[in-house]
Design goal:
By secondary structure, the protein is α+β, with helices and mostly antiparallel strands. It folds into 2 domains: about 1-75, RNA polymerase Rpb7-like, N-terminal domain (Dna Ligase, domain 1); about 85-185, Nucleic acid-binding proteins (OB fold (Dihydrolipoamide Acetyltransferase, E2P), Beta Barrel), CATH 2.40.50.140. It has helices spanning about 20-35, 170-195, and strands at about 1-15, 35-40, 45-55, 65-75, 85-95, 95-100, 105-110, 120, 125-130, 135, 140-150, 160-165.
Length: about 200
């Protein structure tokens, strides 16, 4: 889930940036420090959007820079368990596929694609279902549910697991088939009840 988070920090403005506006210097420093960072509480910090910098800074003896308190807004992405996400397959492996959701990739294990025997063809970049003949390939879009999230200190890149084994998940054409099938089953029931 994307959100805008308000954070507070203290930035050191080095003497080399004294000619720049305080706000611009602070935003540049915050971008270097926070953008592309993964935080266990905030998730993925995508970009710094705005900052309010205290004009009155502090100096420390022996340091030529000034220290300013800053309140800033950051665009973040925190994947939540059971959240439905839309993504694109970016890589096929022997054990499944990596699906780009927001700023990161999630693992779709072969066992979580569908109720069918699947074969992963890494050379052609496809996953092929044995009975239904359905396929997934690099570039395919998917609707999936997040089943596992690990953004702690041990996971430097973060780990996200997803599934498509539930109703109305998977490739758009699979979902259309399920909707038509569900609508077709409900229509005879409605006619029988009307009789």
């Amino acid at each position: 889930m994307f959100s805008i988070s308000t954070l507070v920090d203290v930035v050191r403005i080095p003497p080399s940036l004294f000619g720049t506006t305080l706000k611009k210097a602070a935003i540049n420093i915050l971008k270097e420090k926070y953008e592309s960072m993964i935080n266990a509480d905030l998730g993925y910090i995508i970009m710094i959007m705005d900052a309010k910098v205290d004009e009155m800074g502090k100096m420390i003896a022996g340091d030529g820079g000034t220290f300013h308190k800053v309140q800033f807004e950051a665009l973040t992405f925190y994947p939540k368990l059971q959240e439905i996400v839309q993504g694109e397959i970016v890589d096929i492996t022997d054990f499944g596929a990596f699906v780009r959701i927001g700023p990161t990739d999630a693992l779709l294990h072969l066992s979580q694609v569908m109720d069918d025997y699947l074969k992963s063809d890494v050379k052609s970049g496809m996953i092929i279902a044995n009975q239904s003949g359905r396929t997934l390939k690099v570039g395919s879009t998917l609707r999936s549910r997040i089943t596992a999230v690990s953004l702690g200190k041990a996971a430097a890149m973060g780990k996200i697991g997803i599934t498509c084994r539930q109703p109305f998940l998977g490739a758009p054409e699979w979902i259309e088939e399920e909707i038509k099938k569900a609508a077709g089953e409900e229509a005879p029931k409605a006619k029988a009840e009307a009789s």
